Amino acid sequence: MCSTGVADAIDRLAAALDDLAAQDLTAAFGPQLIERLGLLLVAGNRLTAEIARTVRQGELTGAAEHDGQKTMASWLRGHARLPDPAAKRLVAAGRALEALPAVAAAAATGAVPAEALAVIAPVAAPGKLAAAAARRSTSPASMPPWPRSPPPGRTRSYARS
What is the pTM of this model? Predict the structure, then answer.
């Protein structure tokens, strides 16, 4: 069960959505609709970030096991009826938000859309973060001497090495 604070917040969110749904958009014109859409997109981004944050906490605490599922992705597939790729993206987004506090802060303001979280999430995978930290700890003196820019026509060979 949800705590009273969470249930109250969700009730207020549902009431706000009901108010939005009750608005007559037929009399609105271009600039009004664009302004409304911008505000809705930011709010949607914020909600997605909060969902991802909750999914991550559920993953860390084993919350899915409460309903007989082994993982949050399986819980999302079974209970939220999300397709497998969407469930996996949401789990990955929650992990990325946890691993990248600056991204989490931006997402909490609505500045990061769900699609951007899906692109960022693979970069924040634990193995990749560890590799990046190892590269960061490598001193510039031990790095190979690369020219500032590759000679013309050699960009691909430099990218592969």
Answer: 0.78
